[in-house]
């Protein structure tokens, strides 16, 4: 079962690695979007959130304090869903649909991150193929 959990950790982390790369390669456009949502200055927020995602995902994938990494991702996702993807504020139907999709994605990923946090914090010492045990266990 350890290999299944490892594959799941890798697949879960992949979306955050991709997101972090976007934060570092599309910083200017993401900063504009961030500022349009009321977060100023946008550039540091984009770079910091990209680094936060990258670190959290790396901890989960390699199994070094995976509980901390999962918690970091949940802490990123919950406010991001509400602040960045407030679909209820949109008037344009297409924009509303897009924001609602992103909101739901972030919310479901936050739920998965919290479940992983609980799993790793509770059973982390029993899960193989990790570099360390849990930080919060």
TrEMBL record:
InterPro entries noted in UniProt: DoxX
Chief subcellular location: membrane
Membrane topology qualifier: Multi-pass membrane protein
Pfam families: DoxX
Entry annotated with the keyword Transmembrane: yes
Keyword terms, alphabetized: Membrane, Transmembrane, Transmembrane helix
TM ranges: 6-24, 45-65, 71-88, 109-129
Location of this chain's protein in the cell: Membrane
Protein name per UniProt: DoxX family protein
Lineage: Bacteria, Bacillati, Actinomycetota, Actinomycetes, Mycobacteriales
């Amino acid at each position: 079962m350890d290999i299944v959990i490892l594959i799941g950790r890798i697949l879960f982390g992949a979306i955050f690695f991709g997101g972090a790369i976007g934060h570092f390669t599309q910083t200017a456009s993401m900063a504009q979007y961030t500022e349009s949502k009321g977060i100023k200055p946008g550039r540091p927020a984009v770079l910091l959130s990209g680094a936060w995602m990258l670190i959290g995902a790396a901890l989960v994938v390699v199994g070094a304090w995976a509980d901390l990494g999962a918690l970091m991702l949940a802490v990123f996702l919950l406010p991001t869903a509400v602040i960045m993807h407030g679909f209820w504020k949109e008037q344009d139907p297409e924009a509303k649909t897009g924001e609602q999709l992103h909101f739901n994605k972030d919310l479901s990923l936050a739920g998965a991150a919290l479940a992983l946090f609980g799993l790793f914090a509770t059973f982390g010492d029993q899960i193989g193929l990790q570099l360390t045990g849990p930080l919060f266990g």
